[in-house]
């Protein structure tokens, strides 16, 4: 197993530390977890189960936006929008409320990959990239952070991104579809315009709507750049057993695994579908069939 | 045990939870349902597999199956729909990769097998019937999510009986037939399995269900229908289990929405010898082990030293219009 894939998740009794409005209908949530919870890698997620009586049955997968040490405990941070029954109930939890937290789950960003890190966020996809910026800053690496949204009101977390980048000498560039702030157009268009100035080798770490990630993946493949993209899916277990969160593998991923003579291991038994929870949620652009990603 | 007999509480450690499914001894009655616990080792680092009765593995088919298109899961009121479609690695890789791992598992293993035809099931049991590491087989006669060889195909009593007679010759291990609830009369499929030589029944698999995405005017799943599981189906499953248990002499394994020790004991009281925990594991990986502890505590508090003494203790109200069950 690599550093990205450590089967060291567990389910822990955790406590809501605080949550607050974060702008544009989003909320910033902090949850205290026991110190023996494995420190997560940026791009990993947790399954959050609400205390009874809960309006929902299944835990909700939540991307981790940050991690802080607080003495004997650790605090995990999340950015979310209350849009469904589960997240609305989550928004109503007061400090001190108990939750069950399973994690950290999945494979995160391979931030150790060489090259200038380019973090590309679309809307609320900013969450894991705030954590990635933290991790890169602690390694004294300065990323380029490209932040896109439909309009400037949806650039949630912009101030936090700026703070993190100031700490490591990184740069921030913004794109909005309506031109209300920064580059007018998509964040992929912004990347295309900036790429010649970013040095001989870049590596992309991104999260956002699947449409944006598909456009980014196509750009990366066309420009021979590696891109690691955090995907979303409806999930049940989050741990690989229910096989409920498939994403379509690319023909190239299948061929590569066959060529390496390790098809079984590399594809985990399913040449057709990857599981978002355990094969991802972070996938390299060439591993998925973007024409079939919903 | 009839009526509200009051017994003195006993120490939980004195409660005997061991049960038998045919020739298979289980240290306690709680199994993990097929398709909800992988091959056991996925959860071995968070669940003490010695604390549960056994693991029923993901259904294996002759050929690998990639599974259904997404979405494969959708939450519904107090339950969920799934349309996984029997994704599995197929017989060859089950033997070469999964079986060696199952032999290492600190748990009794019941291997779930599924086939589109009687011949496919013969191939599977012919290949696996004598393998070490498998304590029993569960025949998945009830998957609601495949185009061929699913719950509807296997809802024919004559087909179940003749198939089981052929399979019976291929293994000395106990054979458990997992039945669909979506039949007119589960007693007919239950009796057919018993007549064919099944050692036990699992009652029940998921119920066929639907959820419509009104905005897109299509299914919330990748197919029109899926299987419903979770607390929503517990009363439905309990009634099917009760009915089947009173129609046959072989043990019945109750399944459907079990999330607590009390849930499990309701199935035992209704006639089940053992139970399976499925959807609850998705929320709480340690659910099956917790349920064992809760069963033990309830039995101890009620002075019942052997879980087998509770089996079938439920009596239907005697008044007219009470139980329709006729043994």
Give a description of the structure.
The complex is a heterodimer of chains A (294) and B (327). Chain A has 294 residues and is of the alpha/beta class. Chain A has 3 domains: 10-105, Beta Barrel (Elongation Factor Tu (Ef-tu), domain 3), CATH 2.40.30.10; 109-208, 3-Layer(aba) Sandwich (Rossmann fold); 234-294, no CATH class. Chain A is built from 7 helices and 16 strands. In chain A, the strands form 3 sheets. Chain A has a 7-stranded antiparallel sheet. In chain A, helix 2 runs parallel beside helix 3 (158-168). Mean pLDDT of chain A is 93; it is low at 1-5. Chain B is α/β, with parallel strands linked by helices and 327 residues long. Chain B has one domain (12-309): TIM Barrel. Chain B is 28% helix and 18% strand. Chain B contains 8 helices and 16 strands. Chain B has an 8-stranded parallel barrel with strand order 3-4-7-8-9-10-15-16, surrounded by 5 helices. A 4-stranded antiparallel sheet of chain B has the order 5-6-14-11, with no helix packed on it. In chain B, helix 4 links the parallel strand 9 (175-179) and strand 10. The longest helix of chain B is centred in the first third of the chain and has 15 residues, at 90-104. Classes of the chains: A alpha/beta (294), B alpha/beta (327). Chain A binds chain B through residues 7-11, 49, 56-59, 100, 102, 233-247, 264, 269-273, 294, and chain B through 35-38, 42-43, 45-46, 58, 64, 66-67, 69-75, 78-80, 82, 84, 87-89, 93, 97, 230-231, 279, 281-286.
Uncertain residue ranges of chain B: none
Number of helices of chain B: 8
Helical content band of chain B: 25-40%
The CATH level-2 architecture of chain B is identified as Alpha-Beta Barrel
Overall domain count of chain A? 3
CATH topology assignment of chain B = TIM Barrel
Report the oligomer: heterodimer
By CATH, the architecture of the largest domain in chain A is named 3-Layer(aba) Sandwich
Our count of helices of chain A gives: 7
